[in-house]
C-alpha cells in the first residue's frame, strides 16, 4: 500500500533544484575548461596549477566546508555529484576532488578540534590541496599492519616511516597521515596526524608512472623523525583506526561516483560515434546488435547510479550505509570496466588509439577495483553484513 509519505518521497535520481544546478555547473566547467586539457594532462601526468586554482574558485574543493570557513556549505551528496560530473570528462580530476572532499575535509570536519577547523578548513576551501596517507608498501588491504611509527616527543610526536600510493601527493600541502603511536596495542595504537608539507623531516618521494588516471599524482611520502605538534593529532591518540575506517566507508561512495561518471563519459562517446560511423552503408548505431549493446550498458549504468545515489543519500540522512557503500563501489567499478570496454569495441580500431577519448577511459576504469579497498575487500564487507 502506498502511503502519502511514500508518494511525497522524490525518486532517487531526481535532483533538487540546487543539486541539479550545481551538477550542471560543474559539468559545464569540466566540458569547457578541462576537456581541452585531458589528453595533455594524461600524457604529461600532470595537472596544471592554473586548473587547480580554477577548481578552488569554482568552490568544488570545499563542498562540505561550512560557509563560515569559506566553503560551499553543501552536502556529501553534492560532493558525489561533483565527482561524477568531473569524471565524465576526466576521472583524474574526479579523484582529486574526491580525495579533497570525501576523505580529507570529511575527516577534518568530523574529527578536528575547533582550533584545527579554524586553522585548516579556510585553507582547504581556498587553495590548499589535501591528501590522505594510509597505505604503505607492506600494508595495503591489511592497512592497520602499518610500519610507520609516532613517538611522543616533548609537546608533540616524531613520525618515522614511509607511505606509498598517496593520491594528490604532488599537489597537496596538507596530509592526513596515519602512524602507530603504540605498536604494543596493535591497531589501537594507530593515530591520525595533520602534517603540513613544510614540516621538518617530511618529504614527498617518487611519483608513480601509472596505467590510468595518470594526471592524478600518486606519490611516496617519507618521514624521518618528522615533528608534529600535539595539536595536529586528528581525533584522539589511538583512535586513528576509527578515523580511517569511518572516512574510507564514506570515501568509497565517492569512488562509486567517479566510476559512474567515467562510464557515462564512455557511453556518451560511444553513442555519438556509433551515430556517425558508417559501415555497410548505414550508421553502425542502426544495427540492432549495436543498439542492444548500448541499451545494456545504459541499463547497467542506471543501476550503478541508483546504488551510488542511494548510498550517498543514506549517508547524508544519518542512516547506516556500510553495505550499500561497498555494493555501490564494487558494482559501479565493474560496470565502468564493462562500459569502457564496450566503448573501445564500438570505436573499432579508433578505440585502440590515443587520438580518441575512450582508450583513456578504459585505462582509467581499472583503478576503481583497486583503491579505497579492493573488490575482494568490498565483497568481504558485504558478506560480513549479510551473514551477521
Ligand atoms: C592510483 C592509486 C591511488 C591510491 N591512492 C591512495 C591514497 O590516496 N591513500 C592511500 O592510503 N592509499 C592509496 N592507494 C593504495 C590502495 O588503497 C591500495 O593499493 C589498495 O588498498 C590495495 O592494497 P595493495 O596494493 O597493498 O594490495 P594487496 O592488499 O596486497 O592486495 C593484492 C590482492 O590480494 C587481494 N587480497 C588481499 N587481502 C585479501 C583478503 N583478505 N581476502 C581476499 N583477497 C585479498 C586483494 O583483493 C588484491 O587483489 C592508492 C593506490 C593506487 C594504485
Description:
The chain is an alpha+beta fold and 388 residues long. 52% of the residues lie in helices and 15% in strands. The chain contains twelve helices and ten strands. It has helices at residues 4-8, 17-34, 38-44, 49-58, 76-89, 91-111, 114-126, 240-276, 288-316, 322-346, 358-365, 375-387, and strands spanning 130-133, 149-152, 156-167, 174-180, 190-196, 202-207, 218-229, 233-234, 278-279, 282-283. Strands 1-4-5-8 form a four-stranded mixed beta sheet. α10 (322-346) runs antiparallel to α11 (358-365). Bound molecules: flavin-adenine dinucleotide. The site of flavin-adenine dinucleotide has 20 residues, from β1, β3 and α12.
Outline, from the CA principal axes? globular
The Cα radius of gyration reads 21 Å
Query: How many beta-strand runs?
Result: 10
The helix/strand class is alpha+beta
Q: Summarize the biggest pleated sheet.
A: 4 strands, mixed
Task: Report low-confidence residues grouped into runs of 5 or more.
Answer: none
Helix-strand pattern? HHHHHHHEEEEEEEEHEEHHHH
Query: Number of helical segments?
Result: 12
State the strand order across the main sheet.
1-4-5-8
Which ligands does the model contain, each kind named once? flavin-adenine dinucleotide
Helix content: 40-55%
Task: Look at the structure and give the mean pLDDT.
Answer: 97
Strand content: 5-15%
Task: Offer a concise description of the structure.
The protein has 388 residues and is an alpha+beta fold.
List the helices and strands and how they pair.
Blueprint: H1 4-8, H2 17-34, H3 38-44, H4 49-58, H5 76-89, H6 91-111, H7 114-126, E1 130-133, E2 149-152, E3 156-167, E4 174-180, E5 190-196, E6 202-207, E7 218-229, E8 233-234, H8 240-276, E9 278-279, E10 282-283, H9 288-316, H10 322-346, H11 358-365, H12 375-387
Parallel strand pairs: 1-4
Antiparallel strand pairs: 2-3, 3-7, 4-5, 5-8, 6-7, 9-10
Helix pairs in contact: 2-5, 5-6, 5-8, 6-7, 6-8, 8-9, 8-10, 8-11, 9-10, 10-11, 10-12
The protein binds flavin-adenine dinucleotide.
Flavin-adenine dinucleotide (FAD) is lined by residues 99, 132-135, 140-141, 165-167, 210, 218, 367, 370-374, 376-377.
Amino acid at each position: 500500500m502506498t502511503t502519502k509519505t511514500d508518494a511525497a518521497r522524490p525518486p532517487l535520481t531526481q535532483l533538487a533544484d540546487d543539486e541539479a544546478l550545481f551538477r550542471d555547473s560543474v559539468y559545464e566547467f569540466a566540458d569547457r575548461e578541462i576537456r581541452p586539457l585531458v589528453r595533455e594532462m594524461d600524457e604529461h601526468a600532470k595537472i596544471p596549477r592554473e586548473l587547480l586554482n580554477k577548481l578552488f574558485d569554482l568552490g568544488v574543493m570545499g563542498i562540505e566546508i561550512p560557509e563560515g570557513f569559506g566553503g560551499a556549505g553543501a552536502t556529501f551528496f553534492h560532493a558525489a555529484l561533483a565527482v561524477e560530473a568531473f569524471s565524465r570528462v576526466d576521472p583524474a580530476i574526479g579523484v582529486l576532488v574526491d580525495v579533497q572532499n570525501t576523505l580529507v575535509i570529511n575527516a577534518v570536519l568530523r574529527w578536528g578540534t575547533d582550533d584545527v577547523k579554524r586553522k585548516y578548513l579556510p585553507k582547504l576551501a581556498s587553495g590548499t590541496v589535501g591528501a590522505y596517507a594510509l597505505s604503505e608498501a607492506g600494508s595495503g588491504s591489511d592497512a592497520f599492519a602499518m610500519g610507520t611509527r609516532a613517538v611522543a616527543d616533548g609537546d608533540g610526536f616524531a613520525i618515522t616511516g614511509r607511505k606509498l600510493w598517496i593520491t594528490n601527493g604532488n599537489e597537496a600541502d596538507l596530509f592526513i597521515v596515519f602512524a602507530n603511536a603504540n605498536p604494543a596495542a596493535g591497531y589501537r595504537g594507530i593515530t591520525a596526524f595533520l602534517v603540513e608539507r613544510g614540516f621538518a623531516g617530511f618529504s614527498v618521494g617518487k611519483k608513480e608512472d601509472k596505467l590510468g588516471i595518470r594526471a592524478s599524482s600518486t606519490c611516496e611520502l617519507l618521514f624521518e623523525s618528522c615533528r608534529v605538534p600535539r595539536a595536529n593529532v586528528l581525533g584522539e591518540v589511538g583512535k586513528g583506526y576509527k578515523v580511517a575506517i569511518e572516512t574510507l566507508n564514506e570515501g568509497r561512495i565517492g569512488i562509486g561516483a567517479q566510476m559512474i561518471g567515467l562510464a557515462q563519459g564512455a557511453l556518451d562517446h560511444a553513442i555519438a560515434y556509433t551515430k556517425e560511423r558508417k559501415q555497410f552503408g548505414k550508421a553502425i548505431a542502426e544495427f540492432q546488435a549495436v543498439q542492444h549493446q548500448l541499451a545494456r550498458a545504459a541499463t547497467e549504468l542506471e543501476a550503478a547510479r541508483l546504488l551510488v545515489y542511494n548510498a550517498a543519500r543514506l549517508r547524508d540522512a544519518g542512516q547506516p550505509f556500510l553495505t550499500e557503500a561497498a555494493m555501490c563501489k564494487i558494482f559501479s567499478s565493474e560496470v565502468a570496466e564493462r562500459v569502457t570496454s564496450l566503448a573501445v569495441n564500438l570505436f573499432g580500431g579508433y578505440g585502440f588509439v590515443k587520438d580518441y577519448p575512450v582508450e583513456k577511459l578504459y585505462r582509467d576504469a581499472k583503478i576503481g577495483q583497486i583503491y579505497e579497498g579492493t573488490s575482494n575487500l568490498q565483497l568481504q564487507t558485504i558478506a560480513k553484513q549479510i551473514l551477521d
